[in-house]
Amino acid sequence: MQPVASSAQVADDTLVVAALRRGDESVFTELVNAYSSPLLRLAQDFVRTRSVAEEVVQETWLAVLNGIDRFEGRSSFKTWLYRILVNKAKTRGVREARIVPFSSLEPLGEEHVVPADRFRGPDDQWPGHWAEPPRSLDTIPEERLLSREARQRIAAALETLPDSQRIVVTLRDVAGWDSDEICETLDLTEVNQRVLLHRGRAKLRAALEQYVEES
Q: Which of 73, 130, 153, 171 lies 20 to 30 A from 185 at CA?
C-alpha cells in the first residue's frame, strides 16, 4: 500500500517530481486535491463553460503525468503546472472565440482607474494633484484586511475585471508568477503586462478602500 502523501511532500518540488516519476499515486492525488479548484477557476477565465474548463483541467493533469520526465526545474513545479493549464486553456479560449489573443491587446488611450473627482481641477491652485488622496491601508489592522468579508469583497471585485486584467492579476498575485513568465505565456509585451496589472490592482484597491470606508 502506498504511503499517504503529506503537505510537506507536495510543498517540496524535489519530492513531488521524484514521486510523480516513480508513479506515486498518493502524491498525485494530493496534488489534484490541492490545485484542481484554483486551476478550474483560472481555466474559466479563458473558456465559455465550466464543463470545458473541467476538460482543460483534466488535460492539464494528463500532460503533467506525460511530461514529468521532461520537467527540468527551471521554474517551480507550481509555475510549470499553471503554465500548462494556461497554454491549454488559452488555446481552447481562442478557438471558441471566448477571448482574443493577448498579443492583440494594446494599452491605447487612457483609462481612469481612479475617479477623476479625486483630483484637483484645472482652475485649482494645484491642478492634477490629489483632492482626496487614497487612504493608507497600512493603518488598518491586519486582521481586518484579512477578514473573511474583506477577502469576499476582493474576490467579487476580481470577478468584475475584464478578462485580460483578471488573468494577469490572478497569475501575478495568486499564482505568484513573475512578469517574464506572464509575458511569455500570454504573448504580452512587458508594457502591456504592466498596464493590465496596474489597472486590475487599482480596481481591487478601490474595492478594498470602499469596504474599509463602509465598515
A: 153
> Residue 141 CB: number of other CB atoms within 10 A?
8
User: In the prediction, which pLDDT does 127 show?
Assistant: 54
The answer to whether residue 112 scores a pLDDT higher than 80 is: no
What DSSP line would sit under 162-212, residue for residue?
-HHHHHHHIIIIIS---HHHHHHHHT--HHHHHHHHHHHHHHHHHHHHHHH
What mean pLDDT comes out for the span 41-54?
A: 89
**Distance of alpha carbon 178 from alpha carbon 186, whole angstroms:** 12
The secondary structure element, H or E, covering residue 92 is: helix 77-95
Please measure the distance between the N-terminal and C-terminal CA atoms of the chain and give it in whole angstroms. Answer: 53
Q: Pick from 45, 36, 166, 39: which is nearest to 96 by CA?
A: 45
Percentage of residues in the chain with pLDDT exceeding 90?
Answer: 29
Q: Can you give the C-alpha Rg of the chain in angstroms?
A: 21
Q: What's the pTM value of the predicted model, to 2 decimals?
A: 0.65
The secondary structure element, H or E, covering residue 151 is helix 148-160
Instruction: Give Dmax over CA atoms of the chain in angstroms.
Output: 77
Across residues 39-55, what is the average pLDDT? 90
The candidate with the shortest Cα–Cα distance to 169, out of 152, 149, 154, is 154
What is the CB-side half-sphere exposure of residue 139 using CA atoms within 13 A? 6
